[in-house]
Design goal:
The complex is a heterodimer. By secondary structure, chain A is mostly helical. Chain A is built from 8 helices and 2 strands. Chain A starts with a strand and ends with a helix. Helix content of chain B is 55%, strand content 2%. Chain B has 11 helices and 2 strands; from the N terminus they run H-H-H-H-H-H-E-E-H-H-H-H-H. In chain B, helix 5 (92-101) crosses helix 6 (124-131) and helix 7 packs antiparallel against helix 8 (176-189). Chain B is flat. The relative contact order of chain B is 0.08. The chains are: A mainly alpha, B mainly alpha. The A-B interface holds A 9-10, 26-28, 31-32, 35-36, 39-40, 43-44, 49, 52-53, 56-57, 60-61, 64-65, 109-110, 123-124, 126-127, 129-130, 133, 148-150, 152, 154-156, 166-167, 170, 173, 177, 180-181, 184-185, 188 and B 1, 3-4, 6-8, 15-18, 20-31, 35-36, 38-40, 42-44, 46-47, 49, 54, 194, 229, 231.
């Protein structure tokens, strides 16, 4: 039976081992090696900063429950991404989140001391608009768009992380860009109406 | 297949105003030490959950069914083999004593929580609960129950390792000396514990609060040297450096 194991360097590798091997992957191992990955992924999937910690704990609970079923057939990050995706999807669907996500996140972001107050205000307004548009994308499209356009990952990396063919990533990016452009156009039109 | 040109790159076909929005993203929020600490505590708590808590409803249902069948089988067997009513089960009091005479294995408890050394009790049914408060106690109904160890003059301290350290951490604000004492006692209290690093962090924190900065630095350096790849190394380093 193949199971995922930890080497001393903290790297993950697959090797044959019985299910009750003392070196079998544990929740603590996953936490120790993948904390940053889970944190970043939840942010990319649109979990707001004040809620990331709670949603992170939900992810850890799911990982804890599902870890015995993880057989190493896919990369650990792919497996974790799928879990993060489901948990983030639930988060997004919660009624109270839908209400909160409509509200600007002003006040939660760190202040950049290198900017003037006007520049910082301008940046925050732009960020609020960006988040509003991203919230309008489907979760699949949002994940691909954020990872490619903002985080600068390559499509191949995104495909590996999401466990989908690279063509699917290109397709999702294409449709995400279209949706993004449409939403931005609507915002510009609304601005023009306000000015007029 | 070549990746498309990113919208932030010059010469891409980004719609007007898009680059400004994309540049406004403040990126991933920082994963602070406080959050890391809470999450690692959550991991420790979760992994200490009994396995049944993590199993599915189906497993739970199967377990309940098995227990039900065993109870039914036991009852049937008792009905078949029961002697005369006068010789059947002993009165409740004697059953309770029998339970006390063979107390369950004690949980690992802080060494200093145990009461001062006393001669071993001759009659466990009377002396055991008083001499070893962290052992099983028999309630009036004959049920056993565990409770926290109590040292005279001190608040009850939890016997669970995670709760113990949370208690110590909470004391950092109000009584750093007691927090340090608990951190020192942690290893003796939980020889098989898995949160030694957490205890070390609390000890370093407490030393800093007590103004013993050199001792705190030495302790932190020792921990970092011993666990260079630990998720706590950076945290400890920053904790000590912040006061330099």
């Amino acid at each position: 039976m193949t199971c995922q194991t930890m080497s001393t360097a903290g790297e993950l590798s697959a090797r044959s081992a019985p299910a009750d091997d003392v070196y079998a992957l544990t929740l603590a191992d996953v936490y120790a090696t993948q904390t940053t990955f889970i944190w970043k992924t939840l942010h990319r999937l649109g979990v707001r900063e004040p809620h990331i910690e709670d949603v992170f704990q939900e992810v850890l609970l799911v990982v804890f429950k599902r870890l015995p079923t993880y057989n190493g057939s896919s990369a650990l990050t792919t497996w974790l991404f799928a879990i993060c995706f489901r948990v983030a999807s639930d988060y997004r669907n919660r009624a109270h989140m839908r209400r909160e996500m409509a509200v600007s996140d002003i006040g939660t972001a760190a202040v950049d001391l290198g900017r003037s107050p006007e520049e910082e205000l301008h940046r925050r307004e732009a960020e609020t608009r960006l988040l509003g548009i991203l919230d309008g994308l489907t979760l699949d499209q949002r994940a691909v768009f954020v990872m490619f356009e903002i985080d600068g990952l390559r499509c191949e990396e995104i495909a590996t992380m999401m466990g989908v063919p690279i063509g699917t990533v290109h397709s999702r990016l294409h449709w995400a860009r279209k949706s993004f452009a449409r939403a931005l156009k609507r915002l510009h039109e609304a601005d023009a109406r306000r000015v007029a | 297949v070549k990746d498309p040109k990113r919208w932030l790159e010059a010469g891409s076909d980004a719609p007007s105003g898009t680059r400004e929005l994309l540049r406004a993203s403040s990126g991933v929020p920082p994963l602070t030490d406080a959050v890391r600490g809470r999450l690692s505590l959550f991991v420790a708590k979760t992994t200490s959950l009994p396995k049944v808590a993590a199993s599915s409803w189906a497993l739970g249902a199967k377990g309940m069914t098995a227990v039900g069948l065993m109870v039914a089988a036991g009852y049937g067997a008792m009905r078949l083999q029961a002697p005369a009513p006068a010789e059947s089960a002993p009165p409740i009091e004697s059953r309770a004593e029998a339970r006390v005479e063979s107390p369950p294995e004690p949980l690992p408890a802080p060494a200093d929580l145990a009461p001062s050394p006393q001669p071993p009790p001759t009659s466990t049914s009377e002396a055991a609960p008083a001499a070893r408060p962290q052992l099983a106690r028999v309630s009036s109904g004959g049920r056993t129950e565990r409770h926290t160890g109590v040292r005279s003059g001190r608040v009850p301290i939890p016997l669970n390792e995670t709760d113990y350290l949370e208690h110590a951490r909470a004391l950092l604000e109000t009584d750093a000396r007691e927090a340090l004492r608990l951190a020192h006692r942690h290893h003796d209290a939980f020889p098989a514990g898995r949160l030694d690093l957490e205890a070390e962090i609390i000890a370093v924190h407490a030393l800093m609060r007590l103004g013993q900065r050199d001792a705190a630095r030495a302790r932190a350096d020792a921990v970092i040297q011993k666990n260079p790849g630990s998720i706590y190394a950076e945290r400890l380093g920053r904790l000590v450096d912040s006061q330099r």
